[in-house]
From TrEMBL:
GO terms for biological process: gibberellin biosynthetic process. This is Cis-abienol synthase, chloroplastic. Belongs to the terpene synthase family. It comes from Sesamum angustifolium. Keywords: Lyase, Magnesium, Metal-binding.
C-alpha cells in the first residue's frame, strides 16, 4: 500500500507476506540452486553396471531405487505436465529409459507393465511433429527401442511407426556429423574413446549425466565415474539433466527479476552475482564458455551493467553444424537462439529500441510469467528458484502497488494543471496523461514520486510553450515570455500583454520555484539558477527556430542542430528530475562536460527521430526540419533524394545513440552516477518508442493501450493471495 502525506511518499507494505516473499527470494538467490530430477538421466545412470560381479548389479543402485519409487500414476516417468498436451514425447522418452533400466536389472515387473501400457496409449506422440521434442529424441528413442529388444522387452509399437522412427534416425545421423551431446543414442558404432576429447574438467561430457553414463559404460573412464559419483553426492538418489547449472541458473534469476521489474529489491544480490560472473568470465570459466546460452546471457547482462566483456567470445559458437548437439547443454531450442540473438548485435537490451518501454514490458512479462515454467533439453526440467509462487505473487503485488502510486500522482498532476490555469488555454495539445505515462515508464520506482512529477510537469510546460511559439502566439508575445524568463520576477497583470502570456509564464515561474524549493531540501543547495537557465536556453532555441523560418537562406544541418537539440527539451526534463533520485549531486557534476555530452547525445537522438516522422508536415508548414535541410544542403551538387536524406539523418541518430550508449555504460573515468545515466538511456528509448513509426506524442494510438496497462488496469491476483 502506498500512502501520500503531502509531498512525501511513504511506501508501507501492510502485508507481512510481501516482506516474507522478499526474504525467501533472497534466500533462493544465495542458496543452493534447485533443479528437478531427470528420470531420463537417472535411468541412464541406473544402467551403469558395477565394476565387480561381472556387471551383474547396478553401480548406482540408489538410482534404480529412485525409478522404482517415482513412477507417475499414469504409468509414466518424468516431470509431470498437467494440462500440457505437447510434452508427451518427453514422457515417452523418460518412460522408455526407465523401462530399459528396470528390465536390465530385472526389477519392478508391475511397474514395467504399467509403463508399457503408457507407451501403448501414447505411442502416437512419437511421430507427431507438433509435439515438443526433447533434444536428440529422433536419435536416442529408436536406439532405446533396440536396447529394449536386446533385453527381450516387447514394446507396443506398430511396425510402420518403428520404420518411420528408424528412417528419421538414419536421416538425422547422416545430416548431423557432430552428435556427441546425444551419444547415448549412437551405441557401439560411436567412437567412444574419441568422445573423451570433449570431456570437461569435471569429468563429464557436456555436463550431461546421461551422456557421461553412456561414455563410462563403453570406456570405463575414471573421470566419468568421478563426475557421476559427485553428482549423486549432491542429489543422493537421482540426477538432473544438466549439472552443474549454478552460473546459468543465477544469471537466469537476475534476468527474470529484471524482466518482472522487481530487480530494485535485490540489487545487492544481483551485484554479487554479476561480480562473481565477471570474475569467472575473466578466468575463462568452463561452465560459461562451453555453453552457448550461458555465455550469451552472461555477456548480455554484464555488458548492460558496464562490465568490459568482449563479444569475440561468442565467435566460437558460429559453427552452425555444431550448434544444436555439441555446444549447448542448456539449450532450450528457441530460447537459446533468442538469447544468442540478444547477446549479438551489441546486445538485445541495448539494441531493441523499437519495442516497448521497460515498464510496459514488465507488465507483459508478468502476464506471461508461469510459476510452473519448464525448459527442455534431453528432457523437461524446472528451476524452482526462477519460477515459483513467491516471485509470481510478489512481482504482481509490487506492480499493483506501483500502479496505485501512479494513479495518485496523475491526480496530483491534473490538479497542478488546473491550478496553473493551463486547462483554460484554447490552443495546443493536451498532454497531461501522455506526459505522466512516459515519465512512469522512465522512472518506475514508486519512491521516485518527486522525480516523476517534476519530469512530467516539465514535459507539459514545454509542450504548451512550444505550441504557443509555433502556432498561436505572435513573435512579440513569444519574445515577451523569453524576456520574462530571463528577468525571473513576479509581474503585475498588466505587464504580460495578454492572458495567454500571463498563464504560461506564471505556470512556469511558480512550478520552477516550487521544484527548486523541493530540490533544495533534497540536495542541500540552491538549484534555481540552473533550472531557470535551462528554460532560458530552451526558449531561446524556440525563438531561433521561429526566426529561421523567415530567413531567406536556411541554416545548414549543423547550424540547425546547434540549437534544435535544446528545443526537444530532454536536457531540461532530465536535469530537473535527477535532483530527486536520492543522490547528492554537486553543481560541478551537473554542469560538467560529461553531463553536457549526455544531454547532447540523447537530445540529438530525440530531435532527429522526431524530425524523421514530422518532416512532411513541417515542410507544408514551412518549418525547419533536418531532413528538409539535408536535401537543401546537397542541391548544388545535383541534390539527393528524400530517401537518401532520411538515410543520412538516420546515420546521425545511430552515431549519437552509440555515443550515448558508450557513456551510459562507461565505468572508468565517469563522475556521473549510474542512476542518473539510466535516466538518459531510458529517455532515448522512449524517443524511439514515440517516433519509431509515427508521432505518438502528438497523435497517440498504440500508446493508449500501453497507458491503460501501466496506469489503469491492475494485474489479477489468485484468490488466496488477496484473502
Amino acid at each position: 500500500m502506498v500512502l501520500i502525506d503531502g509531498d512525501v511518499v511513504v511506501c508501507v507494505y501492510l502485508l507481512q507476506g510481501f516482506q516474507d516473499s522478499i526474504g525467501r527470494i533472497r534466500e533462493k538467490m544465495k542458496g543452493k540452486v534447485e533443479i528437478t530430477p531427470s528420470a531420463y538421466d537417472t535411468a541412464w545412470v541406473a544402467m551403469v553396471p558395477s565394476r565387480e560381479d561381472s556387471g551383474r548389479e547396478p553401480l548406482f543402485p540408489q538410482c534404480l531405487d529412485w525409478i522404482i519409487e517415482n513412477q507417475n500414476p499414469d504409468g509414466s516417468w518424468g516431470l509431470q505436465h498437467p494440462g500440457h498436451p505437447l510434452l508427451v514425447k518427453d514422457s515417452l522418452s523418460c518412460t522408455l529409459a526407465c523401462l530399459v533400466a528396470l528390465r536390465k536389472w530385472n526389477a519392478g515387473d508391475q511397474l514395467v507393465k504399467k509403463g508399457l501400457e503408457f507407451l501403448r496409449s501414447n505411442a502416437w506422440a512419437a511421430a507427431d511433429n507438433h509435439q515438443i521434442s526433447p533434444i536428440g529424441f529422433d536419435i536416442v528413442f529408436p536406439m532405446m527401442i533396440n536396447y529394449a529388444n536386446d533385453l527381450d522387452l516387447t514394446l507396443p509399437f506398430h511396425q510402420h511407426l518403428l520404420d518411420s522412427m528408424f528412417s528419421n534416425r538414419h536421416s538425422e545421423i547422416k545430416r548431423n556429423p557432430n552428435l556427441e551431446y546425444v551419444a547415448e543414442g549412437l551405441g557401439e558404432s560411436f567412437d567412444w574413446n574419441k568422445s573423451l576429447t570433449q570431456q570437461r574438467s569435471n569429468g563429464s561430457l557436456f555436463n550431461s549425466p546421461a551422456t557421461t553414463a553412456a561414455a563410462f559404460i563403453h570406456t570405463q573412464d575414471n573421470n566419468c565415474f568421478q563426475y557421476l559419483h559427485s553428482v549423486l553426492i549432491t542429489f543422493k538418489t537421482w540426477v538432473p539433466t544438466v549439472y552443474p547449472i549454478d552460473i546459468y541458473a543465477r544469471l537466469s534469476m537476475v534476468d527474470t527479476l529484471q524482466r518482472l521489474g522487481v530487480d530494485r529489491y535485490f540489487q545487492s544480490e544481483i551485484d554479487s552475482i554479476l561480480e562473481e560472473t565477471y570474475r569467472l568470465w575473466q578466468q575463462k570459466e568452463e561452465e560459461i564458455f562451453t555453453d552457448i546460452t550461458c555465455c550469451a546471457m552472461a555477456f548480455r547482462l554484464l555488458r548492460i551493467q558496464g562490465y568490459e566483456v568482449s563479444s569475440d567470445e561468442l565467435a566460437a559458437f558460429v559453427d552452425q553444424e555444431r550448434f544444436f548437439y555439441t555446444v549447448s547443454p542448456q539449450m532450450g531450442g528457441v530460447a537459446t537462439v533468442l538469447e544468442l540473438y540478444r547477446a549479438s548485435q551489441v546486445d538485445y537490451e541495448l539494441k531493441n529500441f523499437h519495442g516497448i518501454p521497460d515498464r510496459v514490458g514488465n507488465r507483459r512479462s508478468l502476464e506471461l510469467y508461469d510459476m510452473d515454467n519448464y525448459q527442455v533439453l534431453k528432457t523437461a526440467y524446472r528451476c524452482p528458484a526462477i519460477h515459483n509462487e513467491d516471485l509470481f505473487l510478489f512481482s504482481r503485488q509490487d506492480f499493483n502497488i506501483c500502479q496505485s502510486q501512479y494513479q495518485k500522482e496523475l491526480e496530483q498532476l491534473e490538479r497542478w494543471y488546473k491550478d496553473c490555469r493551463l486547462d483554460s488555454l484554447k490552443f495546443g495539445r493536451s498532454v497531461v496523461n501522455i506526459s505522466h505515462f512516459l515519465t512512469c515508464a522512465i522512472l518506475a520506482d514508486p519512491l521516485l514520486s518527486d522525480a516523476r512529477l517534476s519530469y512530467a510537469k516539465s514535459i507539459v510546460l514545454v509542450t504548451c510553450l512550444d505550441d504557443f511559439f509555433d502556432h498561436h502566439g505572435s513573435r512579440e508575445e513569444s519574445f515577451k515570455i523569453l524576456e520574462l524568463t530571463k528577468q525571473w520576477n513576479e509581474q503585475p497583470a498588466t505587464a504580460y500583454g495578454s492572458e495567454e502570456v500571463e498563464i504560461l509564464f506564471t505556470a512556469l515561474y511558480n512550478t520552477v520555484n516550487e521544484v527548486a524549493a523541493k530540490a533544495y531540501i533534497e540536495q542541500g543547495r540552491c538549484v534555481k539558477h540552473l533550472l531557470v537557465s535551462l528554460w532560458v536556453e530552451m526558449l531561446t532555441s524556440f525563438m531561433r527556430e521561429m526566426d529561421s523560418w523567415s530567413d531567406e537562406t536556411p541554416p545548414s544541418v549543423d547550424e540547425y542542430l546547434s540549437f534544435a537539440w535544446l528545443s526537444i527539451s530532454c536536457r531540461s526534463c532530465i536535469l530537473t528530475s535527477i535532483h530527486f533520485l536520492g543522490i547528492n549531486l554537486s553543481e560541478d557534476m551537473v554542469t560538467s562536460p560529461e553531463f553536457t555530452s549526455l544531454c547532447m547525445h540523447v537530445s540529438f537522438v530525440a530531435r532527429l527521430l522526431n524530425d524523421l516522422q514530422t518532416f512532411k508536415k513541417e515542410e507544408e508548414e514551412r518549418k525547419l526540419n533536418s531532413v528538409i535541410l539535408m536535401q537543401a544542403a546537397h542541391k548544388d551538387g545535383g541534390g539527393i533524394s528524400e530517401g537518401d536524406a532520411i538515410w543520412e539523418i538516420k546515420k546521425i541518430v545511430e552515431f549519437n545513440r552509440r555515443k550515448l550508449l558508450q557513456m551510459v555504460y562507461q565505468r572508468n573515468g565517469s563522475i556521473v552516477p549510474k542512476e542518473c545515466k539510466d535516466i538518459f538511456w531510458r529517455t532515448s528509448k522512449i524517443a524511439y518508442y514515440l517516433y519509431s513509426s509515427g508521432d505518438e506524442f502528438t497523435s497517440p494510438q498504440e500508446m493508449m493501450e500501453d497507458m491503460k496497462s501501466l496506469i489503469y488496469k491492475p494485474l489479477e491476483l489468485p484468490a488466496h493471495a488477496t484473502s
